C-alpha cells in the first residue's frame, strides 16, 4: 500500500508548502479542528508565523452506529445536518435533539480538558485557515466554516491533507480557497488510509502541543 503521508506532521509540512504560495493580506489565524487537526496545523502556523487556536467540533453520532455521524456541532452552537442521511435513517426531531444534548456535554467536557486554551483569538477581519487531518463527509468542516463565518473573517481557507470527492464538493463552494493535495476518487474513503502512521490523538497531546507553540511564539 502506498501512503501519501508519513504522519500528521508530515502532512502539515506539505500543506504549509502549498499555503506559502498564497498571499494573505492580514496576519493569518490558523484554527485547528481537534484532536487530529492540531498536529497538521502546527507546521502551517509555524511556517506562516501565525496565531494558532482551536475550534471544537464534534460529530453527531448515529444512535445505533456511533462510529458514523449524521452531522456535526461546534462549541459555538452551530449545527450542520446531513439531511439526506437523517431522512434515510428516519431520525426524528426528538432523536436529533437527544444526540445534540449528549454532544453538547462532550464539547463542554473537552473545553474543560483544554483548560482555557480555546478561543484566545477572534476571526473577525482576519484571513482564517481552518485545518483538519482529513475530510470524510465534510460535515465537520462545514460546521466549522459556518461557525467562523458568523464572526466576519476577511477570508476563509480550508486546508486538509486528504478528502473524499464528495467532501471537497461540499466545502469548496463555501470558502475562498480549499487546499487539499489528495482527493479520493473511490466509493470507499477513509482519512486514515492516507497516513502510514495513524492513531487517535489524546487530549493531553493537543494541550501540550498548543501550550508549547504559544510559549515560543505568542503567549
How are the elements arranged and paired?
Elements: H1 8-19, E1 29-32, H2 36-48, E2 51-54, E3 57-62, E4 65-74, E5 79-81, H3 83-89, H4 93-113, E6 127-131, H5 139-149, E7 155-159, E8 162-164, H6 165-172, E9 177-179, E10 182-184, H7 203-217
Parallel strand pairs: 1-2, 1-6, 6-7, 7-9, 8-10
Antiparallel strand pairs: 3-4, 4-5
How would you characterize the overall build of this protein?
This protein is of the alpha/beta class. The protein folds into two domains: 8-55 and 117-217, Rossmann fold; 59-113, Ybab, Chain: A, CATH 3.30.1310. The protein contains seven helices and ten strands. The strands form three sheets. A five-stranded parallel sheet has the order 2-1-6-7-9, sandwiched between helices. A three-stranded antiparallel sheet has the order 3-4-5. Strands 8-10 form a two-stranded parallel ribbon. α1 (8-19) packs parallel to α2 (36-48) and α2 packs parallel to α7. The longest helix is centred in the middle third of the chain and has 21 residues, at 93-113.
Amino acid at each position: 500500500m502506498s501512503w501519501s503521508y508519513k504522519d500528521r506532521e508530515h502532512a502539515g509540512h506539505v500543506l504549509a508548502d502549498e499555503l506559502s504560495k498564497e498571499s494573505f493580506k492580514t496576519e493569518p489565524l490558523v484554527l485547528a479542528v481537534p484532536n487530529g487537526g492540531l498536529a497538521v496545523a502546527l507546521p502551517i502556523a509555524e511556517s506562516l508565523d501565525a496565531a494558532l487556536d482551536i475550534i471544537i467540533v464534534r460529530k453527531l453520532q448515529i444512535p445505533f452506529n456511533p462510529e458514523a455521524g449524521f452531522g456535526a456541532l461546534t462549541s459555538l452552537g452551530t449545527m450542520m445536518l446531513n439531511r439526506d442521511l437523517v431522512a434515510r435513517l428516519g431520525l426524528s426531531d426528538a432523536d436529533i435533539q437527544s444526540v445534540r444534548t449528549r454532544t453538547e456535554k462532550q464539547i463542554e467536557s473537552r473545553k474543560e480538558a483544554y483548560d482555557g486554551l480555546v478561543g484566545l483569538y477572534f476571526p473577525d477581519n482576519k484571513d482564517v485557515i481552518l485545518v483538519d487531518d482529513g475530510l470524510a463527509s465534510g460535515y465537520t468542516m462545514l460546521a466549522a466554516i459556518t461557525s467562523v463565518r458568523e464572526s466576519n473573517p476577511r477570508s476563509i481557507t480550508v486546508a486538509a491533507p486528504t478528502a473524499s470527492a464528495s467532501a471537497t464538493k461540499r466545502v469548496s463552494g463555501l470558502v475562498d480557497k480549499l487546499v487539499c493535495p489528495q482527493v479520493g476518487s473511490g466509493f470507499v474513503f477513509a482519512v486514515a488510509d492516507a497516513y502510514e502512521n495513524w492513531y487517535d490523538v489524546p487530549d493531553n497531546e493537543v494541550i501540550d502541543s498548543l501550550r508549547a507553540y504559544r510559549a515560543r511564539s505568542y503567549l
